[in-house]
Specification:
This protein is of the alpha+beta class. It is built from four helices and three strands. The mean pLDDT is about 80. This is Large ribosomal subunit protein bL12 C-terminal domain-containing protein.
Length: about 100
């Protein structure tokens, strides 16, 4: 029995599948606003973390302390990538673990 065009169909299917996934990736917008989330910190550096949080938020001492005690917590929401990176770097310097979401 002769074999007609089966290889072309099989060869064409992955190429079309690859193109559609590339189109889906292009349609997905790049994230511009991030949330800074505090996950954990060294117990010895709790006061330093609270002071640092107060430096870039409008929280008072009591509110910052309560925020640190109920981890994980979002420290700042909807900030630009550059500002979020600066916040994360400052918190890592005082012994905290943060992530961008």
């Amino acid at each position: 029995m002769p074999y007609y065009g089966g290889g072309m169909v099989a060869g064409g299917a992955p190429a079309q599948g690859g193109q559609s996934s590339a189109v889906q990736e292009e349609k997905k917008p790049e994230k511009t606003n991030f949330d800074v989330k505090l996950e954990k910190f060294d117990a010895a550096s709790k006061i330093k973390v609270i002071k640092e949080i107060r430096s870039f938020t409008t929280l008072g001492l009591k509110e910052a302390k309560e925020l640190v005690e109920k981890l994980p917590a979002v420290l700042k929401a909807g900030v630009a990538k550059e500002e979020a990176d600066q916040i994360v770097d400052k918190l890592k310097a005082v012994g905290a673990t943060c992530v961008l979401e």
